[in-house]
Each structure stands twice: as C-alpha cells, then as structure tokens.
Amino acid sequence: MRLTFRHPPTRRLLATACTALTLTLVPIQGQSQGVMNLLNALGGSGNASSSAGGLLGAITGGGNTAAPQGDDLVSMLTRSVESIDEPREIDIGRQLAAVLLGSKPLHPDMALQRYVNQLGRWISLQSPRPNLPWTFVVLDDPGYNAFAAPGGYVFVTKGLIDRCADEAELAGILAHEITHVTAKHHLLALRKTAQSGMLTQLLASQIKTTTVGNVVASQFLALGRNLYARGLDQTDEFEADRTGVALATRAGFDPYGLVSVLQQLRTATPDNPLFALSLATHPPAQTRIEQLELAMGKNLDGFTGAAPVTLAQRMLPKGTPAASGPPAAAEPAAPARKSTPPRKKSS
Amino acid sequence: MNWLHRGAHALWQTGAAIALLVSLAGFAQAQETAVVKRATQLRDAPAESGASVAPLEANTVVTRTSERKGAWTKVNTAQGATGWVHMFDLGPQSGSASSSNNTATSGLRSLGGLFGGNSGASTTATSTVGIRGLGAEDIANAQPNPAAVSQAEGLRINADQARQFASNAALQPRTVQPLAEPARPSTSGSGGTNSMNTPYDPSSFGPN
Q1: Which of A157, A211, A246 sits opposite B178 (nearest CB)?
Q2: Strand intervals (E) in A171-222
Q3: Using the beta-carbon criterion (under 8 Å), do A118 and B161 form an inter-chain contact?
Q4: I need a labelling partner for B188 at 20 to 30 A (CA). Which of A306, A345, B6, B34 fits?
Q5: Cα distance from B79 to chain A (closest Cα, Å)?
Q6: Residues of chain B with C-beta less than 8 angstroms from the C-beta of A52
Q7: Where is A222: in which H helix or E strand?
Q8: Which of A143, A67, A69, A64 is nearest to A107 (CA)?
Q9: Across the interface, do B127 and A122 touch by the CB < 8 Å criterion?
Q10: Does residue A216 contact residue B177 with C-beta atoms inside 8 Å?
C-alpha cells in the first residue's frame, strides 16, 4: 500500500539534533552490542563528508559473524523518514553506493567523470537540497541505466552517456535522479521493506554472513541488492520525471531533454540485454511520457530554443573551436574502447 | 579448406556481426516509426509559428528522424514530405514493445531465489547476445566496494566550481513553477496503488 504521508516537494525540516539520538534500540542479546555502538556513532557528527567511518567502515571492519537480526536497522527504518537526520541519511547512501559500485566499477575516463559531476552539481544547486555532498558517478557498463542513493549519490552507466544525443537529455536524466534523492524516495522504499518483515527473509536467502563482517552491513547489503533489483514505486518515478523536468528547466536546460530520452526508450524492448533492468524497474516509457504531457502541457515550451549541445562539444577544452557536428557520444580523450557507434549526428 | 564451409562461416559471421550491431545500437537508429496522436500540421520550422507543409490526420504513420529542437521532432511522411511535429503529438505504433506493460518481471527472473519463491517469476536467465548491461544478477552478487565510493567522493565538485561550469556554458538559472501532479494513469496492470513494476506487495508478504 502507499504511504499515507506524502512529501511536499519543498525544503523540509531537518531532524533536530535531539531526535538524532532517539534510536531506542530494542534490547537485544549481547552480540548486537557492537551494532548499538555503530548506530550510536552515526548520530553524532554533522560533518557529511567525513572519511569512511560510521557504518560504512563497518563493512570492512570486524569479523563478528552474528546471526542476522533485523531489529536495529528495522527500528531505525520503520520510524518516520523524517527522524533519519541528514548525516545518517548520507551514511545510508554510502552503504548503498558501495553495493552499486560492487556490481560495476567507476569508468576510468576521469574527464568524463568530472564533466558529469560538474553538470550534476550545477543542477543540484537549483534543487531543494543544494548543500548535500552531491556525488555523480559514471559506471563502467555498456548497459543503459541510472540510479541514485540517499544523501546525494547519483550513478549513470557509460552506455547511457553514449546514447545521450545532447546535454539536455543527460541533464533531464540527472535531474530525475536528483529528485529521487531530494524527495527521499529510497528511504521510503527501504522503510516499506523494513515494515514488511521482508528483511529477515532477504538475509536468510541471500547473505552468507561469512562474506560480510557484521549484522548491519549484511542488512544494508540485502536491502541494497533488493532495492536496486526491484526499483522504486511507480508513483515516485512519475514524481521524479515531473519534478526533474522542472528542475532541469530551472538549471537552464531544454525541458524536453527527458521527454526525448523517454521517446527513445520507448523503442527498446524488454528482452534487450542492455535495457532489461532499466525497463524492469521503471513504468513503461509510454506511460511516463503521457504523465509528463499531462503535467507539462505546453507550459514550458517558452523555455526551449537553445541550440542543442552535444556532450562532446561541451567537453572540448576551452579555446578549441567547436567542430560542427561531432558524434554525440562523449569521446574520451584517453584511448578507451568505444562500446557503441555514434547514435546520431548533431543537427 | 572447402568453399562451401567458408561461405557458410562467413555468412554466420556476418549474421553474428549484424546481431551484435543491432544489440549495440540499443535504440532504433535514427529512424523510428511513430503515429500522430491527434490531428495537427506538419510544419516547416520547429515552432507553432512554422508554416504548414501538410495537414496530419490522427493515426497517420510517420518516421521520426533523430533531429530534435526543443519540443519538436523532424519527421518524414509516407508521401515523402518532411517537417516538424511537436513530440507530444506523436505516439508509439500500437503493438510496439512499449505498449505492453508486462515487462515487470523480466529483470527479476534471474533473481527468483531472492524472493523466497514469492514473486512467482520463473528463474529463466535473460538471454545474452554477447554483450549485456548491468543486470539484476550483477546486483544480487555484488559485494560492497567502499574504496570505490571513497574514490567517487574524491571527484566531487563544489558549488563554486559548478557555478563556474555553468557560467562557461552560458547556463542561466530560471524561475520555473513546479508542475502539478496529474491524474494517475488508468493503465496500471496491477491495479494496485503500489506499482506494476514491483513484483510483490510487501504489505501482503508473509512467510511461505
């Protein structure tokens, strides 16, 4: 069922410091003592971009292979999403980001990583949460997908980058993912899983505790795997489309970038191994376009008009005369293998 | 080496190469068939003010090119006319993959075991044509990589750097009103309030 609580897409109150420590852990057996300490350690520091301490450090840390017990994390997640303060939200995001980066590595093209960070960070500045430690990542994967994690982590695959006809398309995708973060869609999804009692089931079926150091890390791993394989609620996807379009437009981009992406996505078939996960975890592209048409009408058409810029054009070092009509795919400067033929010529 | 065999082999190689190219292309390359959703005009410029090249009846089939300017896509008609149509006036050809909303379980088939048999999805692995993207099974087998997270965090851009980027790119912030939420689509396959892309309903999840 849907949560009855809906977030207004506005800046929301941060949980106050006093709620930060109200993690009333259910009293549990001694072996979870370490978990309590870990969770408490999360409460304190307001420094978002601290080193890999907190829960994340726990993944690499100790080898107490306790039997899975969902109580601690479940009690945290089952609480209202509001009670998860920003440092804790960021820590949850780092855990989930570690799972995603465990499935595919960073793409080695650092110029591309930098460009996507610049573009994404600029868009994030127009969002309701401009001060999160936004982190944008290109995954070395030929498939077509984008993900986000709480606290400002946004991922796109190299296959997606290669298929962006112009910067407005990529901006539309990043704005969609940024909206998942600002609206805390992943926390809502995790909460739902925690409330459903499914976590125990997931732990039992997919986590061998010997491979992960401790209970909390195991729980996050199980939750993360489940979340990204399953996707978010359809309603949240529509909201990310709608709010993302307005956000990208606010940042100066053509509002139709995302619509253009969805029109192309419409032609991909679910059995295409480059698109399977993307299509399985999102509503049908046609439905998304219809929802956007209802929301946008032609109200944003006045914000169009900028000439399309390809990623390659934007990534040219300053002072380089822009050649007319380079291929759309961002061509890394380093001799990297190119996975796709250029999809389009720029107009 | 016998010619027949070589020929057959070359033929096979060509076929494989084509299959690979098709899968690499991912999208239909540049040319895609679309249907005009409502009567409109084919225009000679990407704007409402563009002069009409020809009227377009509802359900006219056109070919989309890869050229786009804002809301406008360049299309070709069966009669050989070329012009611009607003993207919202174009729909998919009926019967195309996109109209089916039964894609929900495809990505999850390989995950069968994770859902305690609850999802009802069969455990058929997705077929691969030589190359595939990040899939559900990669995520199911992922071991956390905190070092990569730290590396990614080292590549963060701060607000000032982002503003500098925007300034170089002549990107200006603009005031845009939030878009109101429209009525929910009535096409939902599950009919539930959750989603058709969620293969189980956690609220009804029970031990089996």
Answers
A1: A246
A2: none
A3: yes
A4: B34
A5: 23
A6: 146, 149-150
A7: helix A215-230
A8: A143
A9: no
A10: no
Interface check for A240 against chain B (CB to CB < 8 A): the answer is: no
**Which residue is associated with the tokens 């408490």?**
A40
Contacts of B67 in chain A (CB under 8 A): 347
Distance CA A347, CA A277 (A): 31
Instruction: Write the residue in B48, B151, B197 that is nearest to A283 by C-beta.
Output: B197
pLDDT 10s digits, B32-75: 899 999 999 999 999 999 999 999 999 999 999 989 999 999 99
Query: How many beta carbons lie within 10 A of that of residue B12, not counting itself?
Result: 10
What are the structure tokens assigned to A105, written together? Answer: 């590595």
Whether A89 contacts chain B with CB within 8 A: no
Question: Tens digit of pLDDT for each residue in A92-137?
Answer: 999 999 999 999 999 999 999 999 999 999 999 999 999 999 999 9
Helices (H), A251-317: 257-265, 276-280, 285-296, 311-315
Share of chain A above pLDDT 90, in %: 52
**Ordered alpha helix ranges (H), A108-184:** 110-125, 158-162, 167-182
End-to-end CA distance of chain B: 60
